[in-house]
Design a protein that fits this description.
mainly alpha; globular
């Protein structure tokens, strides 16, 4: 993998580029925090960034409606 290939991209853009948008959406819907974290770290989020993002999204289900 090319390091920094996702630099400057939004969350949705990273997931789309990686082909992981549906898998991430499914992980959120199923409240599968471990899978969601793995997907975000695969698109170059640090563990802390991924954890904060997933926790924030899971706290407000309306926030990830656009991932469906």
């Amino acid at each position: 993998m090319n390091t920094k290939q996702y630099m400057g991209m939004s969350l949705t853009d990273r997931l789309t580029q990686a082909g992981s948008l549906d898998a991430f959406s499914k992980a959120l819907i199923e409240k599968d925090e471990a899978s969601a974290l793995a997907i975000l770290t695969a698109v170059e989020f640090t563990h802390d960034q991924a954890s904060d993002t997933v926790k924030s999204l899971l706290l407000d289900p309306n926030s990830y409606q656009n991932f469906k």
